[in-house]
Amino acid sequence: MRTRPLKVALLGCGVVGSEVARIMTTHADDLAARIGAPVELAGVAVRRPSKVREGIDPALITTDATALVKRGDIDVVVEVIGGIEPARTLITTAFEHGASVVSANKALLAQDGAALHAAAEANGKDLYYEAAVAGAIPLIRPLRESLAGDKVNRVLGIVNGTTNFILDKMDSTGAGYQEALDEATALGYAEADPTADVEGFDAAAKAAILAGIAFHTRVRLDDVHREGMTEVTAADFASAKEMGCTIKLLAICERAEDGASVTARVHPAMIPLTHPLASVRGAYNAVFVESDASGQLMFYGPGAGGSPTASAVLGDLVAVCRNRLSGATGPGESAYAALPVSPMGDVVTRYHISLDVADKPGVLAQVATVFAEHGVSIDTVRQQGKDGEASLVVVTHRASDAALGGTVEALRKLDTVRGVASIMRVEGE
Amino acid sequence: MRTRPLKVALLGCGVVGSEVARIMTTHADDLAARIGAPVELAGVAVRRPSKVREGIDPALITTDATALVKRGDIDVVVEVIGGIEPARTLITTAFEHGASVVSANKALLAQDGAALHAAAEANGKDLYYEAAVAGAIPLIRPLRESLAGDKVNRVLGIVNGTTNFILDKMDSTGAGYQEALDEATALGYAEADPTADVEGFDAAAKAAILAGIAFHTRVRLDDVHREGMTEVTAADFASAKEMGCTIKLLAICERAEDGASVTARVHPAMIPLTHPLASVRGAYNAVFVESDASGQLMFYGPGAGGSPTASAVLGDLVAVCRNRLSGATGPGESAYAALPVSPMGDVVTRYHISLDVADKPGVLAQVATVFAEHGVSIDTVRQQGKDGEASLVVVTHRASDAALGGTVEALRKLDTVRGVASIMRVEGE
After folding, report:
1. Would you state the pLDDT for residue B303?
2. What is the spatial distance between Cα B106 and Cα B108, in angstroms, rounded to a whole number?
3. Which of A9, B172, B230, B232 has the fewest Cβ atoms nearer than 10 Å?
């Protein structure tokens, strides 16, 4: 074993960073044995240097992250500060000064992954980011390496623990969105400002990263159709139950049936209770991957939290350190397929639509005609009347999102349709 | 991209090999783009050269596998013939003649993994074998790389599809073992001679491989305690149901609580219906991995079959080819921890024991005394009487297998105990 240590600079020492530092210290011998050389924490960049950080030598603490990544003797920079800047500049500076990078920064990778990969490649360095998607669950490496000889057609998953906690709570207790969110906040599963989670931004970033790797195509955050889950109601869950379904916020990356384009989207959807994703509870994550040769694979585990995320960071750290010792780099960006990313209108799926309609003869015929005119085939209709008002629940066969959108627009114009109570996609069948 | 192709020799062209050859041809462009150089099928060693093999140039077919691996221009040998010999000699010969090796051979790796790894290392070559455990499910790579910075404490899984199909059938239809086996055979899930599957040899080989990687310790097939599932009865399933459990054939690799030793075992066990492994149906496989930092992860998918196994082989092929191009090798054997493998008697778990006893006063007291004398604490006892005969169902708290064995031996000597109807471990709680 090499005795000269590999030097690691840690950018950020919050929930994840402090756990990375802790494990690097407590498991130093194991890490050295697995890497083939000791690893040494050479510096820790933080915003608040006065905070007491147990187990970390105060001499390592600095507020000057830029100087740390420019030192020139750093082998690996571990970036766990998150956000776009200064993380982006620090990472590219690290590459320019000879370091490889392990990052957990999903937002940055979803927005600027291509540029970061290019910077890594230009400098002959590694960029690893298993922790950016679904915490400890190995997903990036299986997609990038284990399935490198296969053709992935679909990635379907629960990749945000906060929203899964909220939806699970609504499902199991009948609570409304706000009540469930309040509980998630109280228990620390939701942040004070939950926007990134509940509006689907976090999941959309992960969808962009997963789609890019799965389809060997650049997919940016802007390419991902995103709908949050703040408008999911207790009534939606009641409708889902009648369908033998529950509701999950799903990230879905699909290759079109003709193979010539891909789509990526995040939205709440009904999935059958018999689908393995339906039983993913609390803040857990799970991702289905469907490929030509492998069939259906599922990966399940804790999608967030300091320890699980640190586990993913450290796995990458070991890999990157091994690469440094052998003088090689791991697989970089693979975007050779360069498939076009189609808009949401091209997505084909099934829909569950609740309409408030006038309770009089001929309404169903009128509504059915609108669906037919837009080429959307109806699977089932359920009609319920009460006091001159009635509701129609329509479940369609597979149709394009554009056709469904046109249908709904036309339905809204019917005198007999008082309102469209909800539209929800049905997935996983 | 390099234009000179990497040359692949395929040893075996059965269900898996023919699928590997097919994908190498149909997906040649994708593989080249992902590797950075084209891959060329340079030879296919078979036993029956006269068999028509669609899509494979007859000029590539040979019966002389030894000459093929000795050619000297082969970059990667893909070994999918299985069994100990000639596979072992062919693999070591391949290393000596400059090739890296991708193998799906669980039996050989479980028996001689250390020697094969040593041969690979001595020649500076790669030995990859994702396909040896749980078909397409990425398990070796996640354990060896994704969790390389974590401490794995437990691997618990269903790693044999044939036996899971049989047990699932017994559970869902109430069928006996023989009836369910007959159906599995008729449907092609069980081989004409099902011994390797139903007696747990196949699962034990996989347990040895998984334990070795998980604990950075050499674990051989002989170190794995193995019990088959041929004696599981419909009555056992009835008992399991009363417990809120089902029965699965599990491979269990554990680190002892003090961390100083490990165990590996394969046997049928009751697991709660609420455990995710309980709902693994048909011939699917699923493996739970528990680590210090990551918590519980689960990997699920098709555990066998030509296509899924080929997916795993091709993922390894891409990785090994990339390594050849970069002049590096991937992670080799990691056995530095060298923990002792403890015997089955040291395993601590819970037990479900059915006793046929005389239906008279004092029997329960007698039985309870025997348990107490052996230090095995009872959780619940259920007593059922019928016509002078009675049965006692005892569920214990956690106890060592040795203590339980001593208890059962003593119980058999009691006049009032007519027989021990079944003993089954209870896992996954």
Report:
1. 86
2. 5
3. B172
